[in-house]
């Protein structure tokens, strides 16, 4: 019996361990933290080491290694195996090998991938029962374990971390939404980050499709030697395959949907809807079902999510804007009078692109590790310690007609476990403020 080492016992690590066990491997699972499922996993026959990675694990022979995508390759325990030229996969590759009847529409990119994936899933699922997985929250291995022999379309969101660990994974339809600087705290270089995104189509063939965003100069530069059909997409040009005019979005001569049916705000969200619709169409979804979903879709939680209007001040939660490019997209959805709440963990990315929205931002209130890095970005700026401090300042400053926008431009990890919790706490603050105003 061959042995596989799984590094990282988060939800995806536990799922891949169970899937590998089911398929005849002896599984060794290790995590630097305590594993609360340890007793259950050991009862199944999985060998578990928690609270650290013992050196004895380096002495064993493994068929391959599965690494949690969030663990950098430079972490000493992982780097040891990199130097040994061991095969290191992520759970995406393992799930792909065992769920043979899944048909994939895969989405990556710096921004917008969750919106595209969510819309795509709604469209696929409207046509016939489908699945959604990956970086959006559901490990693909959980689905592969439950539906091993079943036939499903899968909308799959992929981070570059997940793509670094594939070898044979092949989607039928794929796209890279855009490329902008991100994850420089994880990757060796910006070029390495961009190149990792292009792995999404490397195993495709002439029966498959890749949607290429030709508005993005980085994608045009890095998306080369594509082995499948290329569908060029643009919000600006009409001499491409996927385009729009003043009224409709088109794939070649096919009218995908009516632009006025879109509820999600911003030009970039129109692009997200076009990519999702084209991918769904290529996966066999009817135009009727595509258009029904377009009419109903109100957006993704934490992505320019409308929260409430209090005293004629609108509140929006854009906690998923974890880099400069995503924050630019969020700010571009508004014309003026934005009280911007931003800041968080320093990812060593320049915020200079935000300067173009100085006229949109009435006041920038920045918090967290990067709080002082916005002083040279916006004319009117103040630094505070926490998001709670920023919110309290914002409601004191806000006048009727203003917009209070949480759009951090940074990851959450200095003060929050993840961007979802940051967004939830912001929404709780808004609701508590609304309740207080109603009592007055």
TrEMBL record:
Family: Belongs to the MurCDEF family.
Name of the molecule in the record: UDP-N-acetylmuramoylalanine--D-glutamate ligase
Taxonomy of the source species: Bacteria, Bacillati, Bacillota, Erysipelotrichia, Erysipelotrichales
Organism: Holdemanella hominis
Location (main, coarse): cytoplasm
Function according to Swiss-Prot or TrEMBL: Cell wall formation. Catalyzes the addition of glutamate to the nucleotide precursor UDP-N-acetylmuramoyl-L-alanine (UMA).
Mur ligase C-terminal domain boundaries: 302-410
Residues annotated to bind ATP: 109-115
Compartments (UniProt record): Cytoplasm
Superkingdom assignment: Bacteria
């Amino acid at each position: 019996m061959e042995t596989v080492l799984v590094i990282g016992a988060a939800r995806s690590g536990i799922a891949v361990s169970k899937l590998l066990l089911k398929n005849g491997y002896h599984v060794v699972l290790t995590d630097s933290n305590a594993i609360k499922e340890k007793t259950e996993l050991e009862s199944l026959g999985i060998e578990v080491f928690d609270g650290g990675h013992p050196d004895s694990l380096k002495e064993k022979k493994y068929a391959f290694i599965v690494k949690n995508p969030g663990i950098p390759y430079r972490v000493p325990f992982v780097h040891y195996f990199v130097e040994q030229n061991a095969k290191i996969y992520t759970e995406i590759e393992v799930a792909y090998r065992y769920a043979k009847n899944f048909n994939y529409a895969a989405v990556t990119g710096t921004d917008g991938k969750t919106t595209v994936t969510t819309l795509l899933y709604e469209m696929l699922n409207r046509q016939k029962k489908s699945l959604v997985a990956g970086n959006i929250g559901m490990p693909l291995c959980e689905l592969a374990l439950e539906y091993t022999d079943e036939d499903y379309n899968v909308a799959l969101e992929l981070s570059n971390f997940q793509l670094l660990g594939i070898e044979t994974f092949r989607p039928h339809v794929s796209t890279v939404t855009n490329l902008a600087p991100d994850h420089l705290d994880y990757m060796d270089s910006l070029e390495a980050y961009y190149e990792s995104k292009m792995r999404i189509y490397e195993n495709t063939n002439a029966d498959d499709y890749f949607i290429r965003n030709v508005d993005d100069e980085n994608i045009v530069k890095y998306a080369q030697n594509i082995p499948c059909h290329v569908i060029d997409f643009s919000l600006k040009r009409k001499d491409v395959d996927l385009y729009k005019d003043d009224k409709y979005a088109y794939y070649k001569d096919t009218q995908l949907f009516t632009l006025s049916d879109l509820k999600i705000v911003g030009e970039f969200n129109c692009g997200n809807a076009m990519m999702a619709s084209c991918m769904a169409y290529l996966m066999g979804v009817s135009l009727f079902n595509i258009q029904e979903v377009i009419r109903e879709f109100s957006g993704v939680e934490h992505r320019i999510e409308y929260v409430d209007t209090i005293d004629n001040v609108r509140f929006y939660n854009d906690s998923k804007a974890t880099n400069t490019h995503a924050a630019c997209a969020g700010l571009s959805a508004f014309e003026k009078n934005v009280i911007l709440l931003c800041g968080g963990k320093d990812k060593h990315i320049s915020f200079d692109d935000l300067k173009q929205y100085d006229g949109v931002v009435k006041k920038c209130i920045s918090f967290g590790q990067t709080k002082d890095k916005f002083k040279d970005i916006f004319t009117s700026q103040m630094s505070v310690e926490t998001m709670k401090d920023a919110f309290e300042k914002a409601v004191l400053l806000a006048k009727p007609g203003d917009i209070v926008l949480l759009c951090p431009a940074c990851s959450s990890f200095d003060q929050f476990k993840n961007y979802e919790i940051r967004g939830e706490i912001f929404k709780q603050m808004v609701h508590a403020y609304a309740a207080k105003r109603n009592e007055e």
